[in-house]
Amino acid sequence: RGPSDSGERGDDNRTNKQRSAAKNWWENRLAEVEKQQKDVKTVSNIFDGVNAYLQGYNEDASSLQIKELINMNGGRISAFFTSKKHITHIVCRNLSESAQDRILKSPGKLFVVDVKWVLDSCKAKKRLSEANYNRLKLQKK
C-alpha cells in the first residue's frame, strides 16, 4: 500500500489544517486582547513599560480589578505567559516552587510581585519599588 492508500497524506493535511486553525485562533485572540487594552481610558502612566501576567487567586482584589488598574495606569496585561521577552511582571499571591525555580534559572529580568504592589502604587500615585513586594524573596525558606 502506498501513502495515498493508507490515509497518511490525509492525516498530514488534517494536522496542517488543525495547526493553521490553532494559529489563526491564537492570532485573533491576541488581537482581541490588544484592542480591549487600547479601549481603556488611561488616568496615569505609573505602569508605563509594565507588561503583567496575573497568576492565580487573590484575596485583596479581583483579577478584573487588577487588570483594570494596570491598564488605566499605563500598563499592559498579557493574557498568556509566553516568555520573559514579553512579560515584565508576574502579579501573584503565591508561586509554586517549580515555577520559582524556572524563573530563577531562566535568563532575563522578571519581577514577581504581590498584588499589593499594584494597589499600593495606585494609592501612592507612583510606581513603587518592586523589591518590597517580591514574591520570590518572600517565599524562599
Instruction: Give me the strand/helix succession.
Output: HHEHEEHEHH
How large is the share of residues in beta strands? 5-15%
Outline type: globular
Let me know the average pLDDT: 79
* Helical content class: 40-55%
Q: State the low-pLDDT regions, or none.
A: none
Tally of DSSP β-strands: 4
Strand count, sense and barrel status of the largest sheet are: 4 strands, parallel
Structural class: alpha/beta
Describe the protein in words.
The chain is an alpha/beta fold and 141 residues long. The protein has six helices and four strands, in the order ααβαββαβαα. The protein has helices spanning 3-6, 8-38, 63-72, 97-105, 115-124, 135-139, and strands spanning 51-55, 76-77, 89-92, 111-113. A four-stranded parallel sheet has the order 2-1-3-4. Helix 3 links the parallel strand 1 (51-55) and strand 2. The longest helix has 31 residues, at 8-38. The protein is globular, with a radius of gyration of 20 Å. The model has no long low-confidence stretch (mean pLDDT 79).
Record keyword descriptors for this entry.
141 residues; alpha/beta; 6 helices; 4 strands; globular
Question: Would you summarize the structure shown here?
Answer:
This protein has 141 residues and is an alpha/beta fold.
Question: What is the fold's blueprint, element by element?
Answer:
Elements: H1 3-6, H2 8-38, E1 51-55, H3 63-72, E2 76-77, E3 89-92, H4 97-105, E4 111-113, H5 115-124, H6 135-139
Parallel strand pairs: 1-2, 1-3, 3-4
